[in-house]
Amino acid sequence: MKNYNLYKLLSVILLTVLSVLVTVQNASAAPEPTARRGAQIQVTFRNIPAEDKPNVDGSYIVSQANGCITLPYIEETPIKADGKTASQLERMIKNAYLDAKIYKHPIVSVQVASVDEINDINKRYVQVSGFVARKQNLPYRQGLTLIGAILDCGDITDYGSREIQVTRYNAKTGKTHTQTYDYFSARDRSLKLQPNDVIFVKPRGPFEGRPSELLP
Fold it and tell me: What's the whole-model pTM score?
């Protein structure tokens, strides 16, 4: 009887070990999700100046046109996100800020959107990022203007420039075009936005002033 109980105990232990090994193997075999054009990724920084976190932390949409995301302070160096995993993007973003000598020891965390989130984003949105109070993706509505989108995001911050970039994708040519608008221009404020427009508020220059009244 003792031998039987010992054999039974060993069998249970063996089955448990095999079950754990199969679970671990299946988990390691599951492919890591990758960012796709039109997808949203969440970027969070640590070990950087506290006053900078609201400027760089946030959600970014991977461009439908070139598969890139544009981050504050390194606007001239878009990050190629399409097809990259979260861990790959973390290294790429960290290295981009190190190469630009913006931060010394940044820690970057990236979350890639799920399939459901991608489908939701692809409906009709306008992306607002850069130096605004709340970076977010606004559901597109007919008649949405540049100033309306910026105000929906809490307005530009004290660190935000009056120069606002709007990137628009042309489905006919398959190319994007970026144009800069003036926050204090009444004409520029009334710009009618289109679905999938990407608005980026640039950082304020050291000698950039604020006009006392709205310009034409």
Answer: 0.55
